[in-house]
Design goal:
By secondary structure, this protein is an alpha/beta fold. The chain has 16 helices and five strands. A five-stranded parallel β-sheet has the order 2-3-4-1-5, sandwiched between helices. The radius of gyration is 23 Å and the shape is elongated.
Length: 329
């Protein structure tokens, strides 16, 4: 999305709020853009920055052709600073470096913009340091914070930002886009349940690692139905060797969550809602005979708890071992 008109097709409310501010010359000194991955947070941040620096703006729309627009798009503008997590979090040293940059005059104007990706990962000290920026706003400084979890942002920061909630993308429209670009219907349904990001969906659809991940979830469920006593060995020999880090483990649990949800849908006669399995997959019927509705609801809760543990940096192998044993009970 390179124009506000394109943003308006996906995020009409956000587009209207920000473009109205641009028309009135009342751009906020701080924005907090909250939305799931793929909902356009980064694109909106770029458009705000371009609008402040573009040398050939047409109304609210940046030209996307001038030197400033091109450098902002490539991440090379000297007065537009991006901060993202260093490892698992954004650390105070990163914010100190940002503050140091802001003690200097703008290299090409007095306007400065800083964009903080995954702002919910700010450490306590880093967040308090950012708060000082927001408590004493400069008319020529604009902060844009991006997050998938605004509730993890400390209240004093949220209260000093204009919070804009981005809506999830329309699932049917997203599936149609994927199918029109060559993806099978079953795969498009699965991808739309996993992500709102078109590029991610296409990459996963063509990725051998992802295909094997999906296959391992099928094998795990089949193992529970025929040889549950071998599940622990399967986890160590197959699962852990494929899902090697936290991000991969989280993706594995996302797939597991969708698979067990389909089995629950089979119990209640809602096969049209299947996402992971095809409606006529024989394994679903077999699994439904193994897991009761009550057990399946409990399993879904267990998987969600396991995902939270991963986000809390609990050791991934320990998390999946515990989950595998809990599912058996």
């Amino acid at each position: 999305m390179k124009t506000w008109s394109e943003v308006a097709q996906v995020q009409p409310l956000a587009s209207r709020i920000i473009t109205n501010s641009i028309k009135k010359g009342r751009i906020s000194h701080a924005y907090l853009l909250h939305g799931e991955r793929g909902t356009g947070k980064g694109a909106i941040a770029l458009l705000i920055a371009k609008g402040l620096f573009c040398s050939n703006k047409q109304g609210t729309e940046p030209c996307n052709e001038c030197n400033n627009c091109k450098r902002i798009a490539s991440g090379n503008h000297p007065d537009v600073h991006w901060i993202e997590p260093d490892g698992q979090s954004i650390k105070i040293e990163q914010v100190r470096n940002l503050q140091k940059e802001f003690t200097y005059s703008g290299l090409e104007s007095n306007q400065k913009v800083y964009v903080i990706k995954d702002a919910d990962t700010l450490t306590v000290n880093a967040a308090n340091r950012i708060l000082k920026f927001l408590e004493e706003p400069s008319k020529e400084t604009t902060a844009i914070m991006l997050t998938e979890n605004s509730q993890s942002i400390i209240p004093t920061i949220r209260s000093r930002c204009q919070v804009i909630d981005l809506q999830p993308l329309n699932t049917a429209a997203f599936q149609k886009q994927l199918i029109e670009n060559g993806m099978t219907k079953n795969n498009a349904v699965l991808m739309s349940a996993l992500t709102n990001n078109y590029d991610d969906a296409v990459q996963w659809n063509e990725d051998e690692w992802f295909a094997e991940a999906r296959n391992l979830v099928v094998q795990l469920i089949e193992m529970y139905t025929i040889k549950p006593e071998d599940v622990y060995i399967f986890i160590h020999n197959r699962w852990v060797t494929h899902f090697k880090d936290r991000k991969e483990q989280e993706q594995g649990m996302d797939l597991m969550l969708l698979a067990f949800k389909d089995i629950l849908y089979y119990h209640i006669g809602n096969e049209t809602a299947f996402v992971f399995f095809a409606p006529d997959d024989a394994l679903v019927e077999k699994a439904a005979m193994t897991f009761s509705q009550e057990h399946l609801v409990n399993i879904l809760n267990l998987v969600l708890k396991a995902k939270r543990k991963l986000k809390q940096n609990v050791q991934p192998t320990l998390v999946i071992e515990q989950l595998a044993l809990q599912i058996q009970r």
